[in-house]
Design a protein that fits this description.
Length: 336
């Protein structure tokens, strides 16, 4: 008599089958293995994308800071004085930012500004790790750009001449307020054009129009209105990344340009901590540097939350501490 194993075929009603328990066990193991392989592949893809994004942000910031600072210094050399023309800086900043945003938007998002990155973090658009890595890349790019200035321009004062400073007749308070306002405008425009979602709202049933028949007839007689017909219908259309995202780099570039023109003779028109940090480190000139960090981050924070409130989705005022709240809830429910 032969011995049977769990994997031997048996005949039931003339049909060859295998024990059901063994088949289910094998399928379950295969499913677990496939899920683990899929998870590993997803994690690997995420790591690769993050590395590419950080590298893109490094290169993007390097090019941006180099172009802006080189334009400023080049004008000073040609004019043979040390008062940078705001219009030249505004045009150069606007044009180069449009080109760089179009080039790097699909790689890293083309932030090239720690204040913008900070705003995306506090509004829950990126996590803390990506925020820190982006800011490190942006700081490194600014330093690399400053070193390139030393290599490409004659003389040893090129970097020192492009260090961001408030003007001599501007108080610290005025510089702080100016930088905060400029950064607020920039971040709000970026969020509104690059992150906003499409939504159509029909308020037809919510709008009530009350009017007096005599007043309407008198107005029609005098020609101030052509019809007495009033239809209580109001539809609000908003745009999205699909319809206006392609124009976002242009809107952002124009904004950068006129902001430089506004703040250039007051706070230096920086509104970018990386722009302030790179030349300051290489030239070792730290005067007024804290202004560009405090004011710019504060303005970005306010702009991010303001745009989130006005955006056509449900705002989450606790988005900054939401991960902490979820962690505490999981601890209480025993999920950790």
């Amino acid at each position: 008599m032969s011995r049977r194993t769990d994997l031997e075929e048996i005949t039931v009603g003339g049909t060859n089958t295998r024990p059901e328990s063994g088949t289910e066990h094998t399928d379950e193991i295969n499913k677990i293995v496939q899920e683990q392989m899929k998870l590993k592949a997803e994690n690997r893809t995420k790591r690769i994308l993050l590395i590419k994004a950080i590298g893109g942000e490094l290169l993007c910031t390097t090019l941006f800071i180099f172009i802006v600072c080189a334009t400023s210094y080049n004008y000073k050399r040609q004019a043979n004085h040390y008062t940078s023309e705001p219009l030249i800086g505004a045009v150069a900043t606007g044009f180069c930012s449009v080109a760089l945003i179009y080039s790097f938007a699909d790689v890293s998002g083309a932030n090239f500004n720690p204040a913008v990155t900070f705003a995306t973090f506090v509004t829950g658009k990126i996590n803390a790790l990506k925020c820190v890595m982006y800011i490190i890349a942006q700081m490194s790019g600014a330093v690399m750009a400053s070193i390139l200035l030393l290599i490409t321009f004659p003389g040893n004062t090129v970097v020192k001449d492009v260090v961001a400073h408030r003007s001599s007749d501007t108080s610290i308070w005025e510089a702080l307020v100016m930088e905060a306002i400029l950064t607020y405008i920039l971040v709000y425009v970026i969020f509104a054009t690059a992150f906003d979602k499409i939504e159509k709202k029909d308020f037809s049933n919510d709008v009530k129009v009350d009017f007096d028949e005599d007043e309407m007839e008198a107005a029609a007689t005098t020609g101030s209105v052509k019809s007495k017909t009033v239809r209580p219908k109001l539809t609000v259309y908003t745009t999205s990344g699909d319809s206006k995202g392609g124009f976002a780099p242009i809107a952002i570039g124009f904004t950068l340009g006129f902001l430089v023109f506004i703040g250039g003779t007051v706070s230096g028109g920086c509104f970018n901590p990386a722009r302030a940090f790179g030349p300051a480190l290489v030239a070792w000139d730290w005067g007024d540097q804290w202004i560009y960090w405090l004011a710019d981050f504060f303005g970005a924070f306010l702009a991010g939350y303001t745009q989130m409130i006005f955006a056509h989705n449900n705002p989450d005022p606790l988005v900054l501490i939401r991960p902490v709240i979820e962690y505490i809830q999981k601890r209480r429910t025993g999920q950790f």
